[in-house]
Amino acid sequence: MIFVGIEVIGRVPSVLHTPLMSGANAIHGVVIIGAIIVMGKAETDNYLALILGFLAVILGTLNVVGGFVVTDRMLEMFSSKKNSKK
Amino acid sequence: MDLNLLTICYLIGSVTFILGLKMLSNPATARRGNLIAAAGMLIAIGGTIFLYRNTETGDHLHNYAWIFGGLLIGGVIGTLAARKVKMTAMPEMVSLFNGMGGACAALISLVEFNHLSRELYSNYSAEYISSIQPTVLIIVLGLIIGSVSFAGSIIAWGKLNGKVKDFSFTGQNILNLIILAVALGAGAFLVIHPEHNFLLYAILALALTYGVLFVMPIGGADMPVVISLLNSFTGVAAACGGFLYNNKVMLTGGILVGAAGTLLTILMCKAMNRSLINVLVGSFGGSNNSASISGGKDQGNYKEISLSDAAMLMSYATKVMIVPGYGLAVAQAQHACHELEKVLTEKGVEVNYAIHPVAGRMPGHMNVLLAEADVSYEKLEDMEQANDEFKTTDVVLILGANDVVNPAAKNDPDSPIYGMPILEVELAKNIIVNKRSMKPGYAGIENDLFFQPKTSMLFGDAKKVLQDLLNEVKNV
Question: Which of B280, B302, B161, B304 is nearest to B228 (CA)?
Fold first, then answer.
C-alpha cells in the first residue's frame, strides 16, 4: 500500500499539490469508521465512551465532509475555467 | 452474509481511494477523482453503520441515535465551513480539517483504552495483559500521532490566519526532543504495564504539547510543508485505527494518505529547496534569519514609481509578466488582476503570469486563485518557462511576492533561502514591485531586488493599486 501511495502521487504537477493534499486530507477521514465502531460498541451506560465517541464522530465527519467539499471547490475553479475557455 | 457484503463495501472504498488519488494527480480528471473517493467513503461509512458486526458477539452496532446525531452535526458544520471559506483561506481550512481527523483518531484511542482498562479490572491476569499488549501499542501510537497532528494543525491554522505568532526560544529543539522521548517512553511503559492507565492521559498531554511546540517556531513560509506532513501523520493515525479494528478500508486509506502525504511533503520541500529535516527542527523561522536581518547591511535606496508612469510603462511594453504572490491573495485582487491583463492584451501587449511553485501559501494556491478569476490556463507559466522568458520581457509586475523573487537565493550563500529556486525577474528590462510596505516577506529577510536600479516600487494594497492602475492604463 505504501508503494501504491508513492506510485499514485509520483508524477503530480505542482499546480495540483494543494487540491491533492486536500483530497488526501479528506481520505484520511476514514478514521470516522473507527469512530462509528467505537460509538456503536460502547455500552449505553458508559458515558465517557459515549461522549468521547460522539465527539470523535463529529470531528471525523467534519474531516470527511469538509475535506471533500473544499477539494471540490478548489477543483471547480480549474474546470469552470476550462469550460468557459472551450 | 452481512460480513461479506461489508468486506465488499470496504473493498470498493479502498479501490475508490486509490483511484481517486490517482485521478487527483491529473488536472483533467481531478474533480471526478475527488467525487469518486467521496462516493467510496460514503459506501464505506454506510456499510459500517448498517452491516458491521462485533466479531466476538456478532452484535450489530447500537447507539444509532448518537452516531447519526454526530454525523449530522459534523456534516452540516463541515459543509457550511467548507462552502463559506474564502479561496484565500483554503490552506487554513485544510489544516483545520486535518486537525479534526487527528483529534478523531486520538479520541478513538482514548475510548478504546478506557474500554480495555475496564476489562482489565474485571479480568486481571498476566495472560490477559500479554494478550492485549499489541492492542495497547497501537492505541498508544494512534494517540500520540493523532494528538500531535491535532495540536500541530490547530497551531498551523492559527498561524496562517495570523492568530498565532512565531514563537521560539533557545533550546526549544532539545526540549521538543525531550518531550517526544518522554512521551514515547511513557508509551512503551504503558504497553508493558497497561494497568497504569493514568499514563495514557500523561501521554496525551505530552503529545499535545509536542504538537504545539513543534509547529510554533516554524515560519509561515514553511507552513504548507508542515500541513502536508501533519496530513500524512493523520493518515498514519487512521492506519493505526485500521490495525486496531482490523479494518481494511481504514488501513488502506490511512497508509495511502500516509505514504502519499509523505511524498507530497518531500515534493513540496524540493520545490522550495529545503530539506525536511531543516523544516522539522524549525531553524527557518528562528535564529537563522534574525541574524541575517540584524547583519543586513545598508541596502541603499529604493525608488518609487507613480501610477501613471507605471501604466505608461506597461501600456507601451510588448511583453509583460505578472508575478502574483501572497499579497495578491490577501487583497483578493485576482479579479482586478485579470481585468488589467485583459485591458493590456487589448492594447496589444502580451501578458503572462509567472507562477512560482510555492507562490502564495501553498503549492498551486495561485493557480487556483487565478483560475477563479477566469485567467486562462495557457497564460500561467511555471517557473522554468517563465525564467526563459524574462530575458525578453519588458515589464515584470510583481504583486505581493517577495521571497520567490529574491536574488539572494541565488547569490548569497549566507541567506536562509539560499538555493531555493526563484523567478529570475531581474533579467527583465523593468521591474515594478507592488507591496504594502518595505517590510520583508515571510522568510523574514531583505530583498536586494527592491534596491536595484531597474526596480521601482508601487506601494499599496494590491487590489486598490491594480484598480487604479487599470484606470490609468485605460486612459493612456
Answer: B280
Q: How far is A47 from chain B (nearest CA, A)?
A: 10
- pLDDT score at B278: 67
Measured between its terminal Cα atoms, the distance across chain A in Å is 38
Assess whether B222 carries a catalytic annotation: no
Select from B218, B247, B271, B195 the least CA-distant residue to B444.
B218
Min Cα separation B357/chain A (Å): 6
B439: left (phi over 0), alpha (psi -120 to 50) or beta: beta
CA-based nearest residue to B445, from B269, B332, B220, B293: B293
Q: Which residues pair with B418 in a beta bridge?
A: none
Give the whole-angstrom CA distance, residue B448 versus residue B418: 13
The pLDDT confidence band at residue B48, using thresholds 50, 70 and 90, is confident
Please pick, among B374, B394, B403, B412, the residue that the annotation labels catalytic.
Answer: B403
- Over the stretch B29-43, which tens digit does the pLDDT of each residue have? 888 888 898 998 888
Q: Which H or E run contains B102?
A: helix B90-122
Determine contact, residues B207/B143, Cβ cutoff 8 Å.
yes
- Locate the DSSP E strands across B380-429: 380-382, 395-399
Per the structure block, which three cell numbers stand in for B83? 462552502
Contact (CB<8Å) B66/A50? yes
Cell numbers found for residue B304: 518609487
In the three-class reduction of DSSP (H, G, I as helix; E, B as strand; rest coil), residue B433 is classed as strand
What is the C-alpha to C-alpha distance for residues B243 and B138, in angstroms, rounded to an integer? 7
Residue pair B399/B322 in contact by the 8 Å Cβ criterion: yes
Q: Taking a C-beta distance cutoff of 8 angstroms, is the pair A53, B74 a contact? A: no
Contact A52, B70 (CB under 8 A): no
pLDDT bin (cut points 50, 70, 90) of residue B221 is low
Residues of B in Cβ contact (< 8 Å) with A47 = none
DSSP B53: B
Instruction: Give residue for cell 480539517.
Output: B97
Which class for B146: exposed (0-12), middle (13-18), buried (19 or more C-beta within 10 A)?
buried
Rounded CA-CA distance A69/B264 in Å is 21
Q: How far apart are CA A19 and CA A41, in angstroms?
A: 35
Write the residue in B242, B263, B368 that is nearest to A18 by C-beta: B368
| pLDDT of B286 above 70 | no
Torsion of CA B466, B370, B439, B315, to 10 degrees: -40
SS3 (DSSP) at B167: coil
**Amino acid type, B9:** C
Of B30, B85, B377, the CB nearest to A16: B30
For residue A14, the model assigns a pLDDT of 62
Q: Return the residue in A3, A7, A25, A52 with the most chain B beta carbons within 10 A, the one to mutate for interface testing.
A: A25
Model pLDDT for residues B164-184, shown as the tens digit of each residue: 776 667 777 788 888 889 999
All structural domains of chain B: 87-295 (no CATH), 303-475 (3.40.50.1220)
